[in-house]
Amino acid sequence: MIKLINILTEVGEGVTPYPFKQMTSSPHLVVYVFITDANDQYNVKFVSSFARPDNYNLSFYPGTSIEHEDDKIDVITNKGGVFKILSTIVSIVKSFISKNKNVSGINWLGINSDKPGADVQRDRLYKVYLQKNIDQFPNWKILPDTTMTKLRKIKW
Q1: Angle at alpha carbon of residue 142, lines to 74 and 80, rounded to 5°
Q2: Domains in the chain, start-ordered, CATH in brackets?
Q3: 20-54 burial, b if ≥16 CB within 10 A, otherwise e?
Q4: Quick one: 88 exposed, middle or buried, by C-beta within 10 A (0-12, 13-18, 19+)?
Q5: Average pLDDT over residues 79-106
Q6: How many Å apart are CA 30 and CA 48, to the nearest integer?
Q7: Which residue did the predictor score with more confidence, 19 or 14?
Q8: Greater confidence, 123 or 95?
């Protein structure tokens, strides 16, 4: 049986991310945009609450509106380029962490499927791919046994 980690080791290695651009920046909202080879625009959004301004929820979705997710949040985003898209999102997360030293947590929920159990599989894929590619930030760790990907800054 092939495990998810083995697939990522073979397929996820050396994937060049799409070029991306930061479109907005405010204390509670940061949005990045990238365009795929299929000419689809993806938006990667970091949103914090006023109660926890150092913790952000990350979402990404296809579409041309960076302000409104509309109904795009329920669209299946994988059109065959999952590893290049994930590579781009991980690069955006790294950029976001580098530019925002006050950030102590990022939550990333694997959703967008109507198949039973697909959310868990998608979240597992996100966790493994992110863990494999976040090594340049040794003080950031993914918390185990959560229902979503929780990336946290570990205080030494």
Answers
A1: 40
A2: 4-153 (3.40.630)
A3: beeeeeeeeebbbbbebeeeeebbbbbebeeeeee
A4: buried
A5: 87
A6: 9
A7: 19
A8: 95
